[in-house]
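Shipment paperwork, digital attachment
Item: protein structure file
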Amino acid sequence: MRTIFLGNPTWPATVELVGADNCHALKATGGANGSYAIEAIAGSHWNSYSAIRAYAPAPSASLGGHAISAQADGPDAIGISAWTQGNNARSIRGRADGSGSVAVQGQASLNGAAGVEGLALTSTAWGVLGYYNGLFTGVGGAIKGVSNSPSNWAVFADGPTGSTMVKNFVQPHPNDPSRVILFTCLEGNESGTYFRGKTRLIGGLVEIAIPEEWRLVSEDAGITVHLTPIQSFARLAAWEVSRDRIVVRGTEDCEFAYVVNGVRRGFGEHRTYAPNAGLFQPEVAGLPFGTQYPDALRLILVQNGILLPDFTPNPKTAAAMGWQLRMPTMEEVETARARGQLR
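Attachment content:
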């Protein structure tokens, strides 16, 4: 191992440790509870500084190296612990520049284990935050989940999910390989369930076959039935409507289509209004807010006073709501300028 002490204060490290193959350049072991094996504190200059900077060169495509590898074996042990106190600070930052590369990887090999865990301790905090800067064209996103099997979840939420935009599914175009088809989820003011189909009146009467799975997940109240005669002017009526039995009567025998709507069991009391807590809430003064939204949506924020006509935060509304607006960093200003968002 060789150790180099560098006197240049602008260099990102003051000590460089280089180990041989299969050897540790640096190994540190902490002592009792509350102790640190390594403690590093970065300076306060805004432009690219690091308390610890690690680099793992890859001598060949078949070899994988770790710039930093941490192992925690005891109960409630932590391999790497990072803490930030400053505004807009990052405890751990990963940067991947190569195609298919990963800046931070978590791996779980036991049932119930998690490769990466995020923990939020306040009502407006986020355990894991993904951010897409939008400077490049193509398909990209803040967070992506991939499953290698249709029976496994790529993304799973054990609780409510929310979105300020629409929810799409993406389907390949059957005739044009250069395009895909986007369909948007239907939205409403309830947690709806439905089933649909076709059947025929016989002797002016028919009982609709109710799928067992729909009956099991739907409330007994709030069921509606929509009927459409096919090639007939018959009058149809839903004569009996319940979770267990739906009977239709009509003025003549005919085929008809039906749609039965219900409400998900256990979710009949849906709240359509909620506090605007950290959702449509600007944080940075003087920069356009909500650049991910269409202008038609941002005009609503102008209408309710959250934004000014140039889509920057309204300081009067922020003060009235108790929101703290901070000044933008130089990096944020340069990013907004590169995107063409500054007017």
